[in-house]
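Researcher: Sequence of Adenylate kinase follows. Predict its structure.
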Amino acid sequence: MNIILLGPPGAGKGTQARYLVDTRNMIQLSTGDMLREAKDSGTEMGKIVADVMARGDLVTDEIVIGLIREKLEGDKAGGFIFDGFPRTLAQADALAELLEEKGEKLDAVVEMQVDDAALVSRITGRSTCGDCGEVYHDETKPWPADGKCTNCGGTTQKRRADDNEDSLKQRLMEYYKKTSPLIGYYYAKGQLSSVDGLGEIDGVRAAISAILDA
Ligand code: AMP
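Model: Prediction complete. Tokens:
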């Protein structure tokens, strides 16, 4: 089963993807994570994308399509979760072609709906464990007082450089200009399902599971 999690920054795509990885043996393909890895390890591509990401702009279609193409060559286990990809119509077309080449198909596109005010507070309070990626929030799930991640015991709390109000404004603008047309695109293809991403994590999980099991 191959699915796309579609939604603005802060909608909870990463959190839900992690759950699907654990429970359904799926593989999370987050282009944001891949780009951050390239940036942190100082590759040529990482250097090219660093400023673009810090501003909250989108990196080129060519770069992200190349990253996804590479990953589709590897193990597919219980299927792929595309998280943060596609973000443009050109990327969506490229994904359809890549899947067809592999004899694969897209089983569902899950749109996670969250209003803008919630996104700002979710993102500006967000941090993750540097070791396992567990997601925390200053108000709703604070980093443990003993300094150790509840999931893995790791001691490095990380915040993303682009999780600040200025970058977020630009990321939201990019989302509405370039990514939100994908909602209509997948609706027209009969592949779109929507969930309310504002509720408790467990409720959102259940809603997504119901779509995938249907
Ligand atoms: P994310 O972790 O998905 O929020 O992505 C972080 C940043 O990486 C975005 O703000 C973009 O600069 C870049 N990025 C991630 N995925 C894509 C994509 N599919 N297309 C273009 N840029 C992307």
